[in-house]
Amino acid sequence: MDSEDRCPCLSGETYGACCGRFHSGYASGAWPGTAQVLMRSRYSAFAAGAVDYLLATWHPSTRPVELVLDTDTVWRRLDILRTQGGGPFDERGMVEFAAHYRHDGESGVQRETSRFVREDGRWYYLDGEL
What does UniProt give as the signal peptide span (predicted)? Predict the structure, then answer.
C-alpha cells in the first residue's frame, strides 16, 4: 500500500499519516495510544497484509503462532459501532465494529466485539467475540 493512498480505516488521512506509521514504526516505538486507534490500525493491517504488525499487537497470551491472511478477501469499510474504556489512562477497552469485505464476488460483514488490554503503556488485542 502506498503511503499517499487513503487509509483503509477511513479516517480521512493518508495511509502514511495514519495507520501506515504504526505498521512501519511499531518496532521503534510508534504504538497506538487508545484501543480504538489500535482497532483501526489492525483493520488496516488486514487490508494491507501487514501480518507482522497484527502479530506484534496481539496479546502474547492469545496470539497464534502464525497468521495466514486470505488474499482473496478485500476489506472495504470499517464502522466503529461502540467503544467502552480503552482511553489513554485505561487498562482495558472494548471496541465493537463491523468490517465490510468482498470475497469471491460476494459482499459480507464481519461483526465483532474486541477486547483490548494495555500493558507497559501499549495496547494489545486480547480477543474478540463474533
Answer: none
